[in-house]
Design brief:
Elements lengths: L15 E5 L11 H6 L2 H4 L7 E3 L5 E3 L4 E5 L6 E6 L14 H10 L17 E5 L6 E6 L20 H8 L4 H7 L2 H13 L6 E2 L11 E7 L3 E6 L12 E5 L5 H6 L5 E5 L25 E6 L8 H10 L2 H8 L18 H4 L12 H9 L14 E5 L5 H15 L4 E4 L16 E4 L34 H10 L5 H18 L2 E6 L2 E5 L3 E2 L18 E2 L1
Helix pairs in contact: 4-6, 8-11, 9-12, 13-14
Length: 544
């Protein structure tokens, strides 16, 4: 655990220093990079939506943003209305253009966008919106009543459409989406994908506009991401004037040397103990309440393209030993979608993954020998598996070393290819396996309803980073996402797990061990278990 700031004599208006395990690279949490890097931990109260994820990952309505109303009818139809007072920090009113852009970017129906997932948005048939209007009506396809619809258009899902339109050189995102012309859509996608990368220095207030109680003022790898009160926020003002967020790509060591952190929300093991000092003794959040599971996600191409190669690797992974040595009390977890906090999980967790519960070196060696021969008919060369993770990370380094030692006995060479610049796109190119959390995230992950993260098993979805393709799994995810009956959800979960284990989409390990602590002089904090982390209510933090 990194030192926490001592509360005695602290100025109540002094900045609060908040350490996370997010990599602060982009202002867009809904994109592929933003999701993987966990930037929602920093921006859930900067880019407000019609809902937010609460401390247990439950969806909470954000009535400051506006109202949400179900419209009676044969298909799921929802009317959204922004508050008449809702404006961005540049003074521009919030409009339904934001919803149209969010849908276009995340539905998978418009080429060029790189969203984290299409879950939920792919089920929307249309967003009825007059450009500049405060209201929109969202209509889902018949039979596609996405059960977690309340989480759509939530915190972090909508970047400002008027900024994107300006970048694209068009008058209205809505008109561009209606016309479906490739050039304007391409320009919109380019802005949505790359137009919100975080630069070093003061952030342009005309680009990085806020719709929440905080706004992003500046970013510096040495000094963190500085959030200040949004003067244009129409709701209750943020209690603290300034919060400074640190992440993986900031100098946490320098901050420790100058006073430490007020709040820490991070996976265990990212910060190694100084040379000669005792190993840190983190206070780990209860595993039974975890919404995130650490996994080895396997590429379905390259060295692990053949099923026998994936199975050989899986057979030599010491899952039992990894849980004991690196899980901080967590039991080995066998499910790809349901998490330890899921009500249905205990029923089926013991039913899967038993063939890979502990290493079987003889079987691993046999499977490796069954790989297809080379083009000249020669036996396949020794299996080499590159395992990547976002480094440096002392705990993950030890885990990969343990995997390498076990697999070496089967003649399988496991190579650690961690990097501070690693992205999920490394899977299948510079890495054969990625060690990361539920929902293809290197940081905080998950929600109370696991339906979004089930799309890691849906063929072609961006969240399916290993390119696992199984018709049974895809069909089960599709059914799971519109099912509200617990018994049916359980049946679909079993079908998903059977397919995922049969073809080794990934190897679940254990609940992600996270440390969530804060100084005694801070009040209003409630540890957040979901992908937004403890920052879910940072506008309500106070210093006594």
């Amino acid at each position: 655990m990194l030192p926490l700031v001592a509360g005695c004599g602290t100025d109540k208006n002094a900045p609060v220093y908040f350490r996370t395990d997010a990599r602060l690279t982009t202002y867009n949490p809904a994109g592929e990079a933003g999701n993987a890097d966990g930037v929602a931990m920093a921006f859930s109260r900067v880019l407000a939506g019609f809902s937010l994820l609460g401390p247990q990952g439950q969806v909470i309505s954000d009535r400051d943003t506006g109202t949400v109303e179900l419209v009676p009818g044969p298909v799921l139809t929802v009317k959204y209305a922004f508050s008449p007072r809702a404006v961005y920090s540049d003074g521009v009113k919030r409009t339904c253009d934001d919803l149209v852009l969010a849908w276009a970017a995340q539905s998978g129906r418009f080429r060029g966008f790189t969203p984290a997932t299409t879950a939920g948005y792919r089920d929307i048939e249309a967003v009825d919106c007059e450009p500049g209007s405060a209201t929109a009506t969202v209509r889902f396809y018949r039979g596609r009543a996405y059960r977690d619809w309340r989480a759509l258009f939530g915190a972090g899902s909508m970047v400002p459409a008027h900024i994107v339109a300006r970048d694209a050189g068009i008058g209205s995102v809505v008109e561009a989406v209606r016309a479906r012309k490739p050039a304007p859509i391409g320009a919109v996608a380019k802005s949505w994908n790359t137009g919100f990368a975080l630069p070093t220095g003061r952030l342009d207030p005309a680009r990085f506009v806020s719709s929440g109680p905080y706004r992003a003022d500046s970013f510096d790898p040495a000094g963190g991401l500085r959030l200040v009160r949004n003067e244009k926020w129409w709701g209750e003002p943020a209690a603290l004037p300034t919060i400074v967020v640190y992440g993986r790509n900031t100098d946490t060591a320098a901050r420790v040397a100058h006073g430490g952190f007020d709040v820490t929300d991070s996976a265990v093991g990212i910060v190694a103990a100084p040379a000669g000092s005792e190993p840190p003794r983190p206070r780990v959040s209860p595993a039974a309440r975890s919404l995130s599971v650490e996994q080895l996600v396997l590429a379905h191409r390259g060295a692990l393209g053949p099923a026998s190669a994936r199975q050989a690797f899986g057979a030599c992974v010491p899952r039992d030993e990894l849980a004991r040595s690196s899980g901080y009390g967590s039991q080995p977890w066998n499910l790809h979608v349901l998490t330890p906090a899921s009500d249905l999980a205990d029923t089926i967790n013991p039913q899967f993954g038993q063939r890979f519960a502990r290493p079987d070196i003889a079987w691993a060696r046999e499977l490796a020998a069954q790989r297809p021969a080379g083009p000249d008919g020669a036996p396949a060369p020794p299996l080499k598996v590159r395992v990547g993770y976002l480094g440096p990370d002392a705990r993950h380094q030890a885990m990969v070393a343990a995997i390498a030692a076990s697999c070496r006995q089967a003649g399988i060479d496991v190579v650690d290819v961690n990097s501070p610049d690693l992205t999920v796109r490394a899977l299948g190119t510079t890495a054969d396996v990625l060690l990361l959390n539920s929902g293809a995230s290197f940081a905080a992950a998950g929600a109370a309803d696991v339906v979004r993260d089930s799309y890691t098993l849906f063929a072609g979805d961006p969240l399916n980073i290993g390119d696992f393709r199984d018709p049974q799994a895809t069909d089960s995810v599709s059914r799971f996402s519109v099912t509200i009956v617990a018994g049916d959800q359980l049946a679909q979960s079993r079908a998903m797990e059977a397919a995922a284990w049969r073809d080794l989409a990934a190897i679940p390990l254990f609940a992600t061990p996270r440390e969530q602590v804060w100084s005694d002089d801070l009040t209003g904090l409630i540890a957040g278990r979901a992908r937004t982390g403890t920052g879910w209510n940072m506008d309500r933090w106070t210093r006594s």
